Amino acid sequence: MTVQLTHFSAAFVFALFASIVFGITHRETTRDMVRYGLYCFVMFLGGAIAAGWAMWLVRR
Amino acid sequence: MANSTTTKAKAAEAAQPASVMSIIAPAVGWLVPGAGHLIQRRWIRGLLLLVSIGTLFVLGLLMQGHIYKANGGDILDILGFIGDLGAGGMYIVTLAMNGGQGAIAFAIADYGTKFMIVAGLLNFIAVADAYHIAIGKKQ
Fold first, then answer.
1. Residues of B in contact with A10 (CB under 8 A)
2. Which residues from B are below 8 Å from A when comparing CB atoms?
3. A44 lies in which domain range?
């Protein structure tokens, strides 16, 4: 069995699971964990999208 | 004055005997991601860690990622091995089943390789967190 992910779905899955682990391990309270997890998720995915657009601009 | 208080506190901290849990939790957490939290009754955190790290590793395998074996060659191969090793039991089982051979034909297979390395590295963080809970540094 082989799974074929697109670039975006791979980035999404990576961001989702890495953010969950970061949130749990880097903060003390549940509320802070959720907030930090969301922050990491947005940064991971937003960073990937921003880098993609930057490369598109450089290529033009 | 403040300096001596800090030194005394550090000395007291160092003198604390290592509890059984502070040894077992990281070891179990390394073998099975999230288990270090589960045996300390952090059910939700443990399950989330298990699902997150486990899914990343399994997805990496299903994407035909390459798993690194112990080697003394290229520095990147050594670092890849250290990352993979963090996945603990999943890494051992994969090696035993001769999995993770990698497929050069798929461009996505390289993502799979990275997924497995990251899963191992995230498990190292989870193990450290389980240890901090065991010694009472974190709730």
1. 108, 111, 115
2. 45, 48-49, 52-53, 55-56, 59, 62-64, 103, 106, 108, 111, 115, 118, 122, 125-126, 128-129, 138-139
3. 8-59
Contact list in B for residue A48 (CB cut-off 8 A) is none
Total domain count, chain A: 1
**Residues B71-95 pLDDT 10s:** 888 999 999 999 999 999 999 999 9
**In chain B, what are the domain boundaries?**
20-134
ipTM over 0.90: yes
Q: How far is CA B101 from CA A15, B57, B62, B63, B88, in A?
A: 25, 14, 11, 11, 18
In the block, which residue shows the tokens 């112990």?
A: B70
Evaluate whether residue A50 is within a structural domain.
yes
pTM over 0.90: no
Q: Are A19 and A41 in contact (CB under 8 A)?
A: yes
